[in-house]
Design brief:
heterotrimer; A alpha/beta (about 240); B alpha/beta (about 525); C alpha/beta (about 220); A: about 240 residues; alpha/beta; Rossmann fold; 2 domains; four-stranded parallel sheet; 13 helices; 8 strands; about 10% strand; globular; B: about 525 residues; six-stranded parallel sheet; four-stranded mixed sheet; 24 helices
């Protein structure tokens, strides 16, 4: 039976990282996975919830459940924070007794972040990728601490042909994005980003691989600002690569 | 901290931090994280995780039965010849200590470092009443001389250089001091030794209060803790009600967790156990012992089951060391004695979100604190919970969000729950950004988006995926055409509305522009 | 707010009960099992003594083991090295059996009585105590204080010498705490006093003694 995936494209993914989403589709189809994209999806509501507007977050959340509820198959996102939010928060936001609770519970069983889906559901670490470059890895807080994905991203990178992984100093230290934090306290965010960028520059890598769209936006911008030769790419772009970059 | 009437402005405070503070704070935290890792390593990760869980369960059990344990503690301390006082707030606690001091004709007091006494501003109350009150922990002694506030729970003077301290000793103590830690420490030792012997009253906090035996436990390194609680004839301890431990046996879990997490030691140099006055015991200690149990907002924390675990804290400071935000701004930016991740959840509850509503937002929710906390306080969860208190309000306290921000959130949430509106907006941004676009980047955007772009550029809006997906199939292409027409209609309608609104606004004068809160 | 002390007590306890959703006070709660430690299996006495000595040395203390017969020479060496002139001694059966007071007097040391004033004790260069219990795992000495066993003896003098008997050693902290349940005043001493408050540079000997000497005396 073919594995079916509902693409959860995320608001950041859709608005800033279309190439990553296209790569996601390409890679999944190459692995024999059938992809569908539910129309009407917008945002999971996390930015509102984490900013303190929990009541407001139920609006987007209800829409999300309306769109993904009736689907079947796995729901996969290019973002750990979004997948975690749906899994962990929706059953809390719609507790037993609310009409959405059953759907929220059901959906949390089949919603995954992409690398989690590859390694823990498809049980794959080698996806036939080829990316012959020197690469360093930034461990996004949500993937690392929120979801416990410490080894899996490294296992996936280890299986990429030609890829040389070099260590990143303070790899597990936050890049300073933190969603709303980056605009509420921009100076502190900037200081944290400066540390991250400095470490990336010092790593000697040509690329820094990032698993979260939010971190990617932040780090890519930071590298661009200083005219760095290091390029920031999403993990999915590396895993989808065939050696022609 | 006795009076903090105006709201804490974390952003303003953090902008005012000189670079050398961040550097020295980072040096201290880096060192402490290293020593912690070594000494935790001796136990091994598996043992450490079991200990953390045991510590969590023990502390949770204790605060969930706080009334029983407090009553037992009082009974045992009294039976041992000590006096127990209860203080609902800082003012009441200060009054009690002052009254005790006056009754005994106290002129000079020596003090062990205590967060609770800083919280209530006890030093100021005593000094204002004409009682000389000397901080005796080396770091606190230095910081007191400098007339400054401590920058780290464990290492209060870490932000000061040895040259700065030597200069301070020169000007304030009239001693020619070389900028050398050993010599500076020797000077402080000599100065304080006379004070210890001559003092009328010793003031301390406590790390733990054992309910079963009525014992006060002090975990210290320098010896001043012992000096202050041994030499003066009168010992007064001001302790938060959350410091209770059920019995001596269960203390072992906390003694395994606290020193390793705080200073990277298996045990600190001295762990003092004090049960009432020395009088009957005859070991030369104080004749009189007073324990002031302090509420000052702790029962308010207790009231909220979702934030109650804030009270599990054993004041180790490890969360500060692991926090990237704290590492860049130091303690002063938090505007109260409790800084770092624990400060960001404790202060808004003790002081209220009116005063400290900024602090739960002073975090990127990275989770490093939760990972390192020896008693597994779910700090990011509580931060998010308190953010809601600040923005939407809950049964403990009402919201402090400005109407503009609240309206913005409502509008944003609405827009993001309407698929057509959302899609129209995504496409509109691709068009509207054109004049600001430089290649694949938006280098600078108008306020409030400039909060992002002053730090780094934003990627250009690029919502092309849906279109790509839909036009992969013939059916998809057909549906796309129909959708395009609907979107155009919506955009047209939106444009007309926007023009109408502009015309209306321009006919009225003046509009306030609010900074984004918090 | 009334100024009656009972009012504050009642208010706080009432607030605690209300916060926890309880009507009236409850009977003694049961401490969770997780808080009970698994005991550590110690090595043989010899190995444990060596461990204690090693741990204290690692912390900057002067630790060694000696026979009771070597005590006089040890004390003479200490007195000379640390330039001791005045000392205060605990009165314990062990110290009496080794005649520490006699040895010190013989070395020309002025013995300040254990019950002397703090001003007098502050003049002492050396304080000699026993150690009721010891924890090799952490290099900790447990001192039960009491009449003729003042706290100040291990606090005010520049040098603190603790004489430990092998039967004081215990396997772990949980065992030690269990034994101390009936005691009112005691202190754990783990190495000489220290601070790193100035630029994180470790300085040994702050307010407490600058030298901690711990001798395990056998016999």
């Amino acid at each position: 039976m073919t594995v079916k995936v509902q693409l959860f494209i995320t608001c950041l993914g859709e608005n800033f990282f279309s190439p990553v989403l296209k790569d996601l589709v390409g890679l999944l189809e190459r692995l024999g996975v059938q992809c569908e994209m539910p129309e009407g999806q917008t945002c999971c509501g996390q930015p509102f919830y984490n900013s303190g507007f929990q009541a407001q977050a139920t609006g987007p959340a209800r829409q999300w459940l309306k769109v993904f509820g009736p689907t079947d198959g796995y729901i996969v996102a290019p973002s750990g924070s979004c997948a975690e939010f749906v899994r962990h928060r929706y059953p809390e936001m719609f507790p037993p007794g609310t009409p959405e609770h059953a759907v929220a519970r059901e959906i949390s069983e089949r919603t995954f972040e992409f690398t989690e889906f590859l390694t823990r559901v498809l049980k794959l670490t080698d996806v036939g990728a080829c990316f012959p470059h020197k690469v360093t890895y930034h461990a996004s807080c949500h993937l690392l601490r929120g979801m416990g994905l410490r080894d899996e991203p490294k296992q996936l990178l280890a299986a990429v042909k030609g890829l040389e992984l070099v260590p990143l100093s303070e790899e597990e230290t936050c890049c300073g994005f933190g969603g709303i934090f980056s605009v509420v306290y921009p100076e502190v965010s900037a200081a944290m980003l400066a540390d991250k960028v400095r470490n990336i520059q010092a790593s000697g890598a040509e690329y820094v691989v990032v698993g979260e769209p939010g971190c990617l936006m932040n780090i890519a911008g930071g590298l661009q600002k200083i005219g760095s030769a290091v390029a920031a790419v999403h993990m999915i772009e590396v895993l989808a690569a065939r050696g022609d970059r | 901290m006795s009076e903090i009437p105006s709201p804490i402005d974390f952003r303003a405070n953090s902008r005012g931090v000189p670079p050398h503070i961040a550097t020295s704070v980072k040096k201290a935290t880096h060192h402490l994280l290293g020593t912690r890792a070594t000494v935790v390593g001796y136990l091994g990760d598996e043992q450490w995780q079991l200990l953390r869980q045991a510590g969590h369960e023990l502390r949770l059990h204790t605060i969930n039965h706080l009334d029983a344990y407090l009553a037992q503690l009082e009974e045992r301390v009294t039976a041992a010849g000590g006096h127990v006082h209860w203080a609902r707030d800082g003012a009441e606690a200060n009054r009690i200590v002052l009254e005790i001091a006056r009754e005994h004709g106290v002129r000079r007091a020596v003090k062990v470092k205590s967060m609770a006494t800083e919280e209530i501003g006890l030093n100021h109350a005593l000094i204002d009443a004409g009682i000389e009150t000397l901080e005796t922990d080396l770091g606190e002694f230095i910081v007191q001389l400098a007339g400054a506030a401590p920058s780290h729970i464990i290492a209060p003077a870490v932000h000061m250089s040895k040259e700065g301290i030597a200069e301070l000793f020169r000007t304030k103590l009239g001693v020619d001091a070389p900028a050398e830690p050993k010599r500076l420490t020797a000077i402080a030792r000599a100065r304080l030794r006379d004070a210890f012997v001559a003092a009328d009253m010793g003031i301390s906090g406590a790390n733990f209060l054992i309910a079963e035996t009525g014992t006060l436990v002090l975990v210290t390194n320098e010896g001043n803790g012992r000096m202050c609680t041994t030499l003066p004839p009168l010992h007064v301890a001001v302790v938060g009600i959350d410091k209770v431990v059920p019995d001596l046996a269960s203390l072992h879990v906390l003694l395994k967790l606290l020193p390793r997490s705080a200073t990277g030691q298996k045990l600190t140099c001295y762990t003092s156990f004090i049960t009432g006055p020395s009088a009957q015991c005859g070991d030369g200690g104080p004749q009189e012992f007073h324990l002031v149990l302090l509420d000052n907002g702790r029962t308010r924390v207790l009231r909220d089951p979702q934030a109650r675990e804030t009270l599990l804290c054993i004041r180790c400071g490890a969360c500060l060391n692991s926090c990237p935000v704290y590492n860049h701004v130091g303690g002063h930016a938090y505007g109260n004695p409790y800084s770092g991740p624990i400060g960001a959840i404790l202060a808004p509850q003790l002081l209220g979100v009116q005063i400290a509503g900024n602090l739960p937002f002073a975090s990127s929710l990275c989770g490093a604190c939760a990972e390192i906390c020896p008693v597994k306080i779910p700090i990011p969860e509580i931060l998010i919970h308190l953010r809601r208190r600040a923005m939407e309000g809950d049964r403990i306290e009402g919201p402090v969000a400005s109407p503009v921000v609240a309206a913005g959130a409502a509008a944003g949430a609405f827009a993001l729950s309407q698929p057509l509106l959302y899609e129209a907006g995504s496409q509109a941004l691709r068009v509207v950004q054109a004049p600001l676009r430089r290649g694949t980047w938006l280098q600078s955007l108008p306020p409030p988006a400039d909060r992002w772009t002053t730090v780094r550029p934003m990627p250009a809006f690029d919502a092309s995926f849906r279109q790509w997906w839909r036009t992969r199939t013939v059916e998809g292409r057909k549906q796309t055409r129909a959708r395009r027409i609907r979107i155009a209609a919506l955009l047209g309608g939106a444009a007309v509305t926007a023009v109408a609104a502009l015309v209306t606004l321009r006919s009225r004068k003046g509009s306030n522009s609010h900074d984004i809160q918090p | 707010m009334t100024s009656s002390p009972d009012a504050a007590r009642e208010a706080i306890l009432a607030d605690v009960r209300a916060a926890l959703g309880r009507r009236s006070g409850e009977t003694a709660p049961c401490v969770p099992d997780a808080a009970r430690a698994p005991a550590r299996t110690p090595g043989c006495t010899d190995a444990e003594i060596d461990l204690l000595v090693a741990e204290i040395a690692r912390l900057g203390g002067q630790a060694q083991r000696m026979s009771a017969g070597e005590l006089p020479r040890g004390l003479a060496g200490l007195v000379q090295r640390e330039e001791i002139r005045k000392a205060v001694l605990w009165e314990t059966p062990a110290l009496r059996s080794w005649d520490v007071a006699g040895i010190m007097t013989g070395l020309g040391i002025e013995i300040v009585p254990a019950h002397a004033s703090k001003e007098a004790l502050a003049e002492c260069d050396l304080g000699i105590t026993g150690a009721d219990l010891a924890l090799p795992e952490t290099g900790t000495l447990v001192l039960r204080t009491g009449p003729a066993r003042p706290r100040a003896a291990s606090l005010l003098p520049r040098v603190h010498l603790a004489l430990v008997q092998p039967n004081a050693l215990r396997a772990d902290l949980a065992t030690v705490l269990e034994e101390l349940k009936e005691d009112r005043h005691f202190v754990f001493v783990t190495g000489p006093s220290r601070t790193a408050d100035i630029e994180l540079v470790v300085t040994v000997g702050v307010h407490g003694p600058q030298v901690l000497a711990a001798w395990v005396v056998e016999g």
